[in-house]
Specification:
Layout lengths: L1 H16 L26 E2 L2 E2 L14 E9 L2 E6 L2 E2 L3 E5 L2 E6 L2 E3 L5 E5 L1
Antiparallel strand pairs: 1-2, 3-4, 5-6, 6-9, 7-8
Length: 116
């Protein structure tokens, strides 16, 4: 009987310790829906799908640049940059091993945008 009480106490403590912590989710900016959440199915940069124009239509247009000289699956490639736009704030990085018109190539997972 003593073992069961001890086991119950340990289980209760572990549930409380691993339970939800205090967070300020209301203060966190919401992500922009459908902004750079898909990528090319046939062209990969550093193992991640390359970004095309259709992948970024819901992103702040002032933060990406269309690369008309490179077509991927019938669409122009895009390069992203970090900054604040009318729709939201974006943080972008790229694969440093591949450059497109002198800058790092953008790929799926390199861009994170939140609403203003």
């Amino acid at each position: 009987m003593r073992f069961l009480r001890l086991a119950s106490a340990v289980l209760a403590f572990s549930l409380l310790a691993g339970g939800p912590s205090v967070s300020f989710a209301e203060d966190a900016p919401a992500p922009l829906p459908s902004c750079a959440l898909s990528g090319s199915k046939s062209v990969f940069i550093g193992g991640a799908p390359a970004l095309r124009l259709s992948d970024v239509v819901n992103c702040p247009p002032e933060l990406y640049e269309i690369v008309p000289s490179i077509m991927i699956e019938g669409q122009p490639m895009v390069k992203f940059r970090s900054g604040v736009g009318e729709k939201g704030n974006c943080t972008a990085r790229g694969d440093e091993t591949v450059s497109v018109e002198g800058e790092s190539a953008s790929r799926l997972g390199d861009v994170t945008c939140t609403q203003n």
